[in-house]
Specification:
With 112 residues, this protein is α/β, with parallel strands linked by helices. The protein is elongated, with a radius of gyration of 17 Å.
Length: 112
């Protein structure tokens, strides 16, 4: 069996077509003052970091998704909350991927 080798792992061939999707790991979802703060923040940060590090060690590709709006509100959907014509979330620092979970150079970031 041909294996994919990482620094500490060997994966079977069927993992060659595997990709990890890191969804909306941004400040709006993680910080207590964000638009959608999650429950058990510290556990999420710890678990996500462990999972992402393990995926990188196994050389699995990681694709981050990020909810992102133009600060002028020109791309906000009709049902999005606006304040003075501007989005109330997913702009600026609030839209940034959390500093503890930032993508690395080999990762792909998709703004949606």
């Amino acid at each position: 069996m041909n294996k994919v080798k990482g620094p500490d792992m060997t994966l079977p061939d069927e993992f060659k077509r595997t990709v990890v999707i890191a969804v909306d790991l941004q400040n709006d979802c993680i910080e207590p003052d964000g638009a959608w703060p999650i429950y058990n923040r510290e556990e999420l940060l710890r678990s996500a970091k462990i999972a992402l590090d393990a995926c990188r060690a196994a050389r699995l590709p990681i694709v981050y998704t990020q909810n992102w709006y133009d600060p002028r509100g020109v791309d906000a959907l009709y049902h999005e909350a606006l304040n003075g014509g501007r989005p109330t979330h997913s702009v600026g620092r609030a839209a940034d991927i959390h500093v503890d979970l930032k993508p690395e150079a080999s990762d792909l970031l998709v703004r949606k």
